Amino acid sequence: MRLCKSLILLLLSFLPLALNAQISHGGSPMSEQLAGVNALRSGSDEWVRMPRLDTTLLLAQEGERTVRCGGERFAYAFPVDLSPENSGAIYHMADGTAVWRLHIVSEGAYSLNIIFGEYELKGEAQLFLYAPDRSAILGSFTAENNSPSGVLATAPIDGDEVVVELIIPKGSDAKLKIESVNHDYRGLRKTPSYGTAAACQVDYCEVGGHELQARSSVVYIVEGVEYCSGNMINNTRNDGTPYLITSSHCLFDRNDNFVESKAAKSVFFFNYAKPHCLDGVRASTEMSVAGSEVAFKLVSSDALLLKLSDRPPLDYEVYYAGWNMTKSFEAPFYDLHHPNSDVLKISVEEDNITLGSFDYNGLFKANKHWVVKNWEMGIMEGGSSGSALFDAQGYILGSLSGGAIEESCNKPGYDTYWALSEAWSEGIGRILDPEGKATTCEGMEANAVPCQRLTNWRSEDLLHEMSEYEEYAAGHNQANLDEYAERFRTGKEKSVLYGIHFLAYKGYYEEQHPVLLRVYSGDTLPKEVILEEPIQMVTNEYKTRSGFQTSPVNNWEMRDNYYRLSQPIVVDSTFFIGVKLDNESEKYFALCHTDISDMRLNTAYFKNDTQWYPFEGEHPYYPYATSLFIEPEVQVGCAVVKTVDYVTDASSVCWVNNPVTESVRVQFPTNTKLISYEIYSIGGERMAHVEVGKDLSQLEFEMAYPAGLYILRLVFDSHVESLKLLKR
Description:
By secondary structure, the protein is mainly beta. The protein is 4% helix and 40% strand. It is built from five helices and 49 strands. It is globular and about 75 Å long.
């Protein structure tokens, strides 16, 4: 992407993002229940069609543009004014529930995403967005997704149709208005997520180290039509405030004006990296948070600090990176980035950096940027504006603004990062160091008991390559085996399971014949099923524009899929995770598995009739030791005694029963010094203040307030935390 004269902004291009991503709160649409129910407006009113878009002209205009500001554009925004008052069909159920449904079509779109300019749900109201075949569902979104901006931006859904469904039970209410329907004309997930970067780029996984800093990396969609990137960053209070450091030009319009409202209309994605350095495997993109606000901006140096609308859930494994606001640091320096929509890469500079300037139309002041003259490993490509520059200690020094257009593998150029040291006294220092005493800050895990991605994968293992005529060992096959499981051992009495990553040779969602996820108790073999639910994720992806309607690709195929459980569950020190297949399905599903040489290392099992067997020595097609490619997200050693909802706002809290009915119970991972706690209404009124002043492993109190959303403020001896509670 070219800027004025000889400069290029390094902006994130066409990153393939998944849908089953945003923080949701369970439930399902009511589309089936509406059959036969009379609508307030006719069924034809359900349909809204966007004007036909001349994508050829749009692409030609983009190619002719010599100066582009803001993020990398992938979609066209149709301004609309759609609400239950003026569009769609409204159904009234016998129990008093009202359902608003709107079917949006924008012919020829690769994907659609929607921005709600007004979003306020009350009581038990729920919002869903889904593909017409229900292969992809976003939601439910509830009152817990309300934000001060009143805006909700959503992740894209594949295809040129999306259904919006608002469910309002009796006694609940909602204000909802769609202000923008965004038509993806580039092909959001069309480009492969590997092999698109220059040949001299280096996969982050090949180098090793910097694992914590990698977990701070974020990619985000701006206003439904552009991309940029950034990093989660810590503050000296270590309170887990979800600050993201990035570059202000990512929120520019096409006239170089900073547009603050774009922050609320952004969706942030986490953990886009290649699993186990496997070539040909797409990285996971199923983790996101919608919405943010500007905490600090300094357009004259390109500096920007955003505050996300919610703390990323603990199963996202987020790390808040540390920082250094001085001019004293040591080489080497490095940047973790996504050039040309590829998986996470690393660039390394062995020499010292210098303070210099980034000349973009005279907009940025002189000597406000760190200059990297020549990377010893990797380069920067069109891809990652806002990505952080780290020093040898893993501290953030600033974020990427731009560089030289000559940059390539054969002719590298320079790159510039707005300097944290030069923006410190302008106001960002008061946010990241409220006490005004620190010059550096250590990084921090987002949670006191962080989630871990458990794996039975060993560095010497190889992914089993299927031959053309080979039967699937962990999927549909001629032997009609239909149930498989992988064993995990944590070494702790109790842990909490939040979701699973899985890699499949074949597979996608079928409503009539779903693949069932099962979690089993047991020690040496799977025993009792303690959880069963259908795996439902994104299904369709298209290789070419001409194949949009007729050539669907199984979206689970050779991709690091992450399926988040509808609710976390407690597991013992040994447990099993597996799949139950429907052999009536006409579509194949098969898990990937490993080739290993040591027969003692088998962790995979299959079921034949009513009996479980280990793979080695027993399996009809693969009688060898192996591991199935299933990897759970687990909070190891957290002493949970009952099933709980997700905790999205706590770092020193193990869990809290949420939603709340009669009482609140908060579990801490260890004895924790709690000074006091307070309860506030969502409007800010303090409802209660209770002094505690002692070490606790558990806090319990009555919640004698009307139904609604509340804030629980916990004052510890070292910091303060706030949790949202929904009282039913």
